[in-house]
Amino acid sequence: MAFTAVTNPNRAASTGAYSDGLIVDGWLYVSGQGPIDVATGKAVAGNIEEEVRLTLRNMGDVLKAGGCSYSDVVRCTVHLIRIEDFDRFNTVYQEFFTGTLPTRTTVQSMLGLGIKVEIDCIARILTAEVESAG
């Protein structure tokens, strides 16, 4: 089984010992994304709405680099530092995910770097090129 690493094309600084995404058999697994300035590798503090938007933009960059879009996502796992922010999080989340929504688990977690949210996802790659390579 071949693995292909996917990197956010805007990334100039490493933020850890992991791939931004990994393509395996026509599936893209996106590592936990947060409100990180990928040019500097530094967390960007803001209110929950600002942090969710930046997190989902970072996720979108990895999805695009892997040949996917938000509409290809089948599963998300969301970590919120404050579960009380769920409704505010959900409002922003719905700006990015429309139509048939991916399955999702949302949990309250302790997160590093002072961030309020982290999201990972799994997406199906539906291109003929990837399908024939798989």
TrEMBL record:
SUPFAM superfamilies: YjgF-like (SSF55298). Gene3D superfamilies: RutC-like. GO terms for molecular function: 2-iminobutanoate/2-iminopropanoate deaminase. CDD domains: YjgF_YER057c_UK114_family. The keyword Hydrolase applies. It holds the Pfam family Ribonuc_L-PSP. It is an enzyme of class 3 (hydrolase). One of its GO terms (cellular component) is cytosol. Keywords: Hydrolase. InterPro entries: RutC-like_sf, YjgF/YER057c/UK114. Its EC number is 3.5.99.10. Belongs to the RutC family. This is 2-iminobutanoate/2-iminopropanoate deaminase. It comes from Granulicella aggregans.
